Fold each of these.
Amino acid sequence: MTKVRVATVWFSGCAGCHMSFLDLDELLIDLAERIEIVKSPVVDTKEFPENVDVTLIEGAIANEEHYELVREIRERSKIVIAMGDCAVTGNVPSMRNGISVNELLEGVYGNERTTTGTIPNEVVPTLLARVRPVHEVIHVDYFLHGCPPPAAVIGKALLALLDGKTPELVGRDLKFG
Amino acid sequence: MTREILIDPVTRIEGHAKITIYLDDSGEVNDAHFHVTELRGFEKFCEGRTLWEMPALTARICGICPVSHILASAKTGDAILAVRIPKAAELLRRLMNAAQFVQSHALSFFYLSAPDMLLGWDSDPAQRNVIGLIGANPDLARKGIRLRSFGQQIIERLGGKKIHPAWAVPGGVNRALSKEDADFIKANLPEALDTIRITLDLFKSSFADQETRGMLSDFPSLFMGLVSSDGTWEHYDGNIRIVDSQGNIVVDQFDPAHYPEIVQEASEGWSYLKFPHYAPLGYPEGMYRVGPLGRVNVCDRFGTPLADAELEEFRAGSQERSGRVFDYHYTRLMEILASLERMERLINDERILSPRIRAEAGINELEGVGIHEAPRGTLFHHYKVDANGVIQWVNLIVSTGQNNLAMNRSIKEIAQKHIHSGKFDEGILNRIEGGIRAFDPCLSCSVHAVGQMPLLVELRTPDGETVDRLIRD
């Protein structure tokens, strides 16, 4: 049986959705029989591969690198799932949207905050003026609500897709926060 | 001609970290930089929110150790309310923190670092991950998964959710422990204790030789952590102690509320992660380390029998403190054991079942500091509020940041040991990575590199021309 090619990626978020994915616990051992994790923070792959069946995205789009890479991910994935409230709405990372990037950097690294007062601007990616949910940048096929979505909801969605069905998320499955 | 080796994880899509290694004319290593590439700006956007929201908001700094931020924030709230929380609330907070140590340390060891150790530093990179571990040693992998799950289940039973539980609040906690949940913990403790003892025995028989422990980097520094009034290992309360590599106590029983006198932060242009340092020594001389190795190096004892026996074996009668980065793994396992023993003690204390769990009060102070030990090290929250409890100013010193200077030192030392005449290979890259991974950096607190960092190494001239390229996939 050909394994379903699954990727998980992580933009601006806290890793909590990935931890919730790991909270599938021993079900992960069974899932490993049916899926191949081709790209994820927990496996070792150089770059985002071609022909991915399902990609789960945690986090909002917050810097220039995220913005470029999420479009590449869309081109290479059959199904894209926004996993968790940061990907779905922008959530906590978007709370900086009322503050200009310069004011933010000054407020975190300026002379009142650090002994050097140096603002990071080399090698590190430039922050976008506004943090955006994933669907503002690319088409998203399914949304998993929650901060984070409970492991049971992630499992339910994945198992439905593995059986070739549309995930039916109802009631508490759709709860934010 | 000076040259740079850029180690870019190409995990840019996860917004992780990069490493630059600077070579001199003859291809020897001059310096190395560890770049953290993401910023969310909590210190700024929390201004204007209310004190009561802060535990839930700051939990979102990190989904791996949310309990740390929830507890530090609630403790800051206790200080602003000017209350002493009920005994049951303190015991319950301690219980949840112990559960978090278990789940977070188990994640670091079994999911992220064990593949290097058990499958081999030079093994096939495609297999060198947790899936490969499941294939190679399914019994140990399942034990590790169940150990992490035990910690997560306790957090869920106490707080209603495994990740980001809305539970600890200024003044205490908002839900008492049920008899049923206490029984669940008691019933499952023996399996968890069994797993960690088996794992420690495996670790000591395979990796506790002097050569393995010295394989990453080894350098002197200061170490910092909380200790109780008699110098015992502490994870929730207590005062700051700092020791040097000879085991001399530099600072002791220091009130954390006065932390700015001993901890200051610097920033550099090449990383979003700040550089905390021991203020009297200045920057960058004031490098200190926190986390498992820091806590174990500062304490006189764990205060529980099994962990104390491990500590005695670890110290081997020496007064000197280990500066070996590999010993982070060793001390992390010791702390899982200590946390489970503490948990056993807490759950058998009848006071933990009391329904009196929260002190109600309004805003009584306009400034407060909350500090405790997160799995990765000492965590500081510091807020100023107005009379209505609206946040005016926030300072957060996260655990991983305090190891920033040491992580940079670690990769520089490993690179200097292995890269000569500008030559390097995949095995060297994995060791440089290992020199970061041992710290278990929770870069979610800015950005977190979970697991194997895929690496692209480019040898470039100063004008950006690529002269050599190596990809590990």
Amino acid sequence: MNATWWTGRSGLIIPAVLAAFCTYLLVGIFTMEVPAGTSMPGPKFFPALIVIAGYGVSVLLTVKYIRTPEIAEPATYNEYEDVSEQARAEAEAAARVKYRFFSDWVGVAWAAGGFLAFAVLLVPAGWIVSGALLFWCVARSIGSRRPLLDVAVALMMSSLVYLAFGVLLGLNLPSGVLGGL
Amino acid sequence: MDALGLLLEGFGHAFTPMNLLFVVIGCLLGTAVGVLPGLGSSMAVALLLPMTFALDPAAAFIMFAGVYFGGLFGDSTMAILLNTPGQASAIASTFEGHKMARAGRAPQALATAAIGAFIGGMISCIVVVFLAPALAIMSAEFGPAEYFALALFAFVATSSVVSDSVLKGLASLLIGLGLATIGIDSVSGAERFSFGVPQLFDGVSLITVTVAILALGEVFHVASRIRRDPTSRIMRSKGRPFLSRAEVREALPAWLRGTGIGLPFGVIPVGGADVPTFIAYSAERSLDRRRRHPKFGTGAIRGLAAPEAAGNATTGTAMGALLALGLPVSATAAIMLAAFRQYGLQPGPMLFERSPELVWGLLASFFIAMIVLLIINLPFAQLWAKLLLIPRPYLYGGIALMCGLGVFATSGSAFELVLLLGVGLLGFAMRRFDVPLAPLLIGMVLGPLAETSLRDALLSSGGDYSVFFAGPIPIVIYALLLGAIAISFLGRRRGARAEKAAAAEESKQSVDA
């Protein structure tokens, strides 16, 4: 795998997120309407301290990542003593395989996409359908290789949750498309 | 020994078969609600509050005691096994507790938590019985300057002293502090950082952030590693629900230190048991750094024992403060106060005189509830740990589903679910780049306290900053803070030097060979 400038420096996303969040707060501070007659220190005081400190820390973190990249190391059983030789060898062999990205983005995309679909579909489609979809997507992202069996398990799980919490405990879960049946 | 006599009389009231039954039912129901991610003991009490109105006051409060402690136990069970704490006071237990479970010591971790909660709760109940008036005097000493010093201490201790990289710890803390400022400002009523989105007027819910960072972030993290990394696939569980003598010896000082940290917090209105759990965790971690073989990060039994004991110690004294002073110091205590009023009772000094049989019966039922829970939980630790034998895809599918359920049940809005996803992805990124999660949650919990006390202190002093050093308590706290920074700095330098020496030794040996 070719090492690029970004190898070990992808952690720059952390200072970037922090700086973006501070900018959000800064815009909020400038557009905030403070009711008349509010005495010092007002509602802008504490957030302003956070913004100043946040920009400072993100600059320092950026410098740190540029000067000393942090290369991610796959986990092995180094810190554990009570592991069989076979498991240890297996983990070390797996750790030597090189990938383009350290994280398995396909897996993350299945899980995050499943959750987004759940959030969007929950009210229109109802708990049972969207909950089962979430369960199925996450099971797939964790590496399940039996999609049909998963559909059955997912529907059973979301129905059980609906019965236990929606019907018995009276939590307000949307019934959605199955509500009319 | 007046108090002792009254307590014994209270046991007499509580030990009727019906009341014992209510304690057991309460414990079971509380545990059942507590094991759901996102739902903790305050949720358990709130859900079951209407049920108890059918009972007479004594039986209702006895059942409440069971529900409350049961919720705490159930919450820490799930925090340890699945990394899904239901409320802030269980967060500190996840850090080392979940690592223990992952390393195959789930039953031992659950036993450590149950015994720790038992010790903390027992000692605090005894303290309440004898020292309720003294606690009241102490709480009167705390003003805005003292609270600010306390919050600052927690911030610095967790973000720089405790985490491995000071910068990453601070980044995490600042995001947490910033998230806590979103919503309507409680002092001036100004709308802050919501940009007109009505769902943000009440602020970002701590439950959403906790579930997102700890549970959903973990699901994404496992999804990103499980196909490539066999170590993330196995969760071994060895069947030994009881602690070995060595483990007890290891955990005992931490249980006692945690209890000592937790006790005074019950009467200070800083929002309940979450602050002392974090402080106990930080204290254990700084102590651990100075040992020959630091154990934190790989499932240290002390990192779990101390916060559990601290949390329950605070809970016990908080109940004492509620009864003796009428002062609700946590969400749950506030709900209980509402329940007292429902029965036409006003907690406070007068309650002890007007209805002593109720007060002492309630205190006695605290003791009974804890013994019942210990009996229920120790054997069940083994059974709960079996949850980890569910195939990985279904276990994490179920966790994701429960995250969605918990957040939707408390907020009722799809917007909150999208927020959950966004913060969950942040939690994933933080795990990937080794940014500590604890400072973010601490900033979120203590941020509002720090801000209001900072502003109150400055308002009352007319903008004079010397108010922060005016009393003896803040000066002691700042001195402790400086001491902790100095010790951690020296420890870090010594650690770096030892590492260098070890590396030199190793290279010498390889040359010799």
